[in-house]
Structures are given as structure tokens and as C-alpha cells.
Design goal:
Layout lengths: L12 H26 L5 H20 L4 H16 L7 H42 L1
Length: 133
């Protein structure tokens, strides 16, 4: 008795782009943890445990972007990346760069989703008009 496979939910372009950014952020956190350990900016336990927890949070959030609250958490995490500059000074610049990428993907994703919805609505309206004739 095998069950039929469940249909996958269609993800918006915004979700796809922002999930890519979050995975890149998680990769960045890995290297930040190694750098913080290597430069003795943090104790080893804090660098590695904190880095691991942050990576898990970024990856988990990438899977939950369909929820509205996840976007707010994503914005907060971008601010947190910039705030890492207080531990490693170059993170002010790198974090700001990643926050800029997040902002660009958010804005562009919304624009693409709106255009896609417009095209789908106009094609549905056209198909309905053709059926009635």
C-alpha cells in the first residue's frame, strides 16, 4: 500500500532567491566562525558552537520562507551579519554586502512575482473570454 506522492508546493521567485541568499549566508557564517577562532577573536567553544547554531538557523529559515514571519527573521539575521563587525571588523563591510544582496533579491523577487501573477491572470482571463465565444 504505497501512498501517492504529495504534490510539491510551488515556491515564489522571492522565496527561491531569498533561500539562496540564506544558504550563502550560512556558508559565510562557517568561514566567519573559522576566522574568529583563528584570530582568537572568540573562544573556540563560542566560535564553533555559535557558528553551528547560526548555520542551522540560516538553513532552517531558508526552508520556512513561505511564512510571513520568516521574512522578518531574515531581515533581522541580515542585521546580525552586519553586527558581527563588532567581533570581526571586516564583517561590517561583508555583512552590509550580503544585506544588500538580500534587499536586491527581495525587491526583484517581488517584482518578478507580481509580473508573473499579472501574466497568469491575463492569460486566465483571455482563456475564459475565448471559451465563452
Amino acid at each position: 500500500m504505497s501512498r501517492a506522492p504529495r504534490a510539491r508546493r510551488t515556491r515564489s521567485v522571492t522565496e527561491l532567491l531569498l533561500s539562496i541568499v540564506l544558504i550563502l549566508d550560512a556558508t559565510l557564517i562557517f568561514f566567519v566562525a573559522l576566522t574568529a577562532f583563528g584570530l582568537d577573536a572568540l573562544p573556540p567553544a563560542a566560535a564553533f558552537i555559535g557558528g553551528f547554531v547560526a548555520i542551522v538557523v540560516f538553513v532552517a529559515l531558508a526552508r520556512m520562507l513561505h511564512r510571513p514571519a520568516a521574512l522578518w527573521v531574515g531581515w533581522a539575521l541580515q542585521v546580525g551579519l552586519v553586527a558581527l563587525g563588532f567581533i570581526l571588523t571586516p564583517m561590517f563591510v561583508v555583512g552590509a554586502g550580503f544585506a544588500a544582496i538580500w534587499t536586491y533579491c527581495f525587491v526583484k523577487g517581488r517584482q518578478i512575482d507580481a509580473a508573473k501573477a499579472h501574466v497568469l491572470n491575463s492569460s486566465t482571463t483571455t482563456a475564459t473570454a475565448e471559451e465563452t465565444q
